[in-house]
Amino acid sequence: MTKFAIGIDLGGTYTKLALVDTNGRVSHRSKLSTTAYGTRAGLVGAIVAEVMAVLGKARLSPKKVLGVGIGVPGIVDFRRGHVYYLTNVPGWKDTPLKKMLEAKLGLPVLVDNDVNLMALGESRFGAGKGAENLVCITLGTGVGGGIIIGGDLYRGSSFSAGEVGHMPLKEEGLPCGCGSYGCLERYVGNRYIVDELKAKIRRGSPTIIKKLVNGDLSALTPEVISKAAQKRDRLSIDFWDTVGERIGVTLAGIVNLLNPERIIIGGGVADAGEFLFKSIRKTVNERALPVPGKTVKILKAKLGNDAGIIGAAALFFNPETRGRCK
Ligand SMILES: [Zn+2]
After folding, report:
1. Distance from residue 290's CA to the centre of ligand 1 (Å)
2. What is the 3-state secondary structure (H, E, C) of 93-143?
3. What is the number of other CB atoms lying within 10 angstroms of the CB of residue 210?
4. CB-CB contact of 22 with 4 (8 Å)
5. What's the 50 CA to ligand 1 centre distance in angstroms?
6. Which domains does the chain have, with CATH numbers?
7. 162: CA distance to ligand 1 center in Å?
8. What pTM, to 2 d.p., does this model score?
9. Separation of CA 138 and ligand 1 centre (Å)
10. 307-314 vs 114-125: helix axis angle to the nearest 10?
11. Residue 236, SS3 per DSSP
């Protein structure tokens, strides 16, 4: 019998939710503003009302609903469903989110980190389907990661495993927002790559980018760099090559450490496509040990913006995870 869970993706701007069935199909999507309700209690109340509305519209008997999974951008004690803090949402320090939601919903609730859940979603229903061991990374403003070992999430001793963005790339590199130096995120994060390329253009490197942004370099985004690369702009192609090399060096370390079957890459920067992926694959091939380097497949994420919602629901599609959390 097909069963269902509600998946929720709490982001800095929007909180998205939907009904997901055990085949990974998404329906009854809905979206709330994360910031419009003032307090965390206000947002929790709005989420509860929206979950009830979705269940009402879907006319599902409670017996068919396994629970409500929610992903949040921060560090979470998964066993207790306790949010330590959220990176870009103020006022959420030490929030017993599982307790708050369960008290109002009367359904089981599981809370986890959003990138962990994206990894879980991709592993069950996306580019990781069929693989037991994989690493999923997201390339955006920040660089995040999730690790699946033996088909289940590896969360670490204090639930912070998978912080690929803060793996050191350079021994004495640029200062990073986390307080350390030379982290990968500092060299491939959205904002930093845009600034780096702007500086190159200002120094006079020839490129069609200036034309693409009508002379206004403040309009430069990774999408524009990809567009220029597609038009065979040398500077942009070389730039993605360099970014891919940096990512590839870090991934070679991950490949040697974990010997994963697949590495799945998602997030806005991943849309640079083959310009980026070719360079990542080449670098991993050159830098990883031969056996794990040949085993690993490096693929683009498949589920797009739905990955977090699907992964949140998928927490309930895994009997072992459910058992651990009751
Ligand atoms: Zn860092």
Report:
1. 29
2. CCECHHHHHHHHHCCCEEEEEHHHHHHHHHHHHCCCCCCCCEEEEEECCCE
3. 14
4. yes
5. 36
6. 4-121+306-325 (3.30.420.40), 130-301 (3.30.420.40)
7. 13
8. 0.93
9. 15
10. 80
11. helix
CA of 181 to the centre of ligand 1 (A): 6
Q: DSSP H helical segments within 162-233, as ranges?
A: 185-188, 190-202, 209-212, 222-230
Find the 179 Cα to ligand 1 centroid distance in Å. Answer: 6
If you measure from the C-alpha of residue 167 to the centroid of ligand 1, how many angstroms do you get, rounded to a whole number?
7
pLDDT the model gives residue 319:
59
Between CA 26 and CA 71 the distance in angstroms is: 16
Residue 272: what pLDDT? 85
Structure tokens at 215: 């002379």
pLDDT of res. 62: 73
Ligand 1 midpoint to CA 180 (Å): 5
User: 241 alpha carbon to ligand 1 midpoint, in Å?
Assistant: 22
User: Within its chain, how far is the Cα of 87 from the centroid?
Assistant: 14
How far is it, in rounded angstroms, from Cα 19 to Cα 316? 12
Q: Which two tokens stand for residue 269?
A: 């920067």
Q: pLDDT tens per residue, the chain (326 residues)?
A: 889 999 999 998 999 999 999 999 999 999 999 999 989 999 999 999 999 999 999 998 777 899 999 999 999 999 999 999 998 888 999 999 999 999 999 999 999 999 999 999 999 999 999 999 999 999 998 999 999 999 999 999 999 999 999 999 999 999 998 999 999 999 999 999 999 999 999 999 999 999 999 999 999 999 999 999 999 999 999 999 999 999 999 999 999 999 999 999 999 888 888 999 999 999 999 999 999 999 999 999 999 999 999 999 999 997 554 434 43
Q: 81: CA distance to ligand 1 center in Å?
A: 25
C-alpha 11 to ligand 1 mean position (Å) = 21
* Cα of 293 from ligand 1 centre, angstroms: 26
CA distance 234 to 228: 9
